[in-house]
Amino acid sequence: MAPNNQNTKSNKKKAQKEPSAQELWETFPEALRRAIQENSMTQFDEAVKNVFTETPEILRKQCIQAGFLNEGTGNFSTLEDIKSQDMLSHFETNSALLEQLSELQGSTEPFLTEHPHMAAEHTVNWLTIAALSSAIDKNEEKLAALSEKCVVFQLFLASATGQKQFFKKFEVSENLDEVKAFKSRMRSRAQAKGEKPEKINLNQGTVDSRQFLEELKQLENLKKTEFAVQNYNKLVIRGDRMVKEFLIENPELLTEEAIKYLRILADTYSKDLNAKKCTDVSKKLTYILHFLTKKMTVAEYFVDLLAADSVKEYNDIWLVELRKMKQMMVDYKKARNPE
């Protein structure tokens, strides 16, 4: 009996080590990804031969297990195809539970205790589109309930704590703010879709996976934009001494998109004839404009900024920006008080 037990344990370990489709895809070189996307067995074999010369059969087996290669037909599926198939399978298998969850009143903790497998990314996706449908219908009560459930599931999946600990910690202002932000994104997207937007039918067997995934992509882009705008505003109110640390911690702000947003902000402050805020914006705008002329990291940039030549470059850019904002304020003032 002992050897059998050991074999069972060994098989379990092997099963646990099998990579997911996402993990496997991330290991693939570009040539292999292209072969799968173009559904070319010839390119696939060539890529395997060139890159995975030692273990081609292992790789082929992993591709079959992960769903990239259909052994019977010889056809390939992309990562998006696999995700789409998994998502639709989750919807179909759990359609009754998803509907039950959407109508659930109060805490979702008992529901998760009874159905732990529902704590999944696909459940979050379903709830997100259900919330968007509520926003389109202007059903604020259902939007509020679905938004909270969606944020609960998102945070729960990202949390390393146990279920009981998580639900005790959820009712804090930061998490409730995220619920408000989520509702705001749903309303914004519903408005962007027009007066008579096309909704996604969430009933069993009628989900258009491509439309569904495209809508999720649009909502994710909206979330990223919203997050970026929050950080742009945080940057503007930072004092001069805190700008360096803030930009080192948030290097993603040093982009052309940030420049566009700060210019819009500068225009708004110019209309209000608020010289102090225009000056604050111009300083932060100059950091980004100056940084983008350099080929270095943020930390290296701030070291470089200690040099006299770099300081002169910064000041030259800043003076140009200040003159622009001063001229905008003059123009807006004239427009208000024409002679």
Automatic annotation (TrEMBL):
SUPFAM superfamilies: Hsp90 co-chaperone CDC37
Domain Cdc37 Hsp90 binding: 70-201
Keyword entries, A-Z: Cytoplasm
PANTHER family: CDC37-RELATED, HSP90 CO-CHAPERONE CDC37
Superkingdom assignment: Eukaryota
Gene source species: Caenorhabditis elegans
Sequence similarity: Belongs to the CDC37 family.
Record-given protein name: Cdc37 Hsp90 binding domain-containing protein
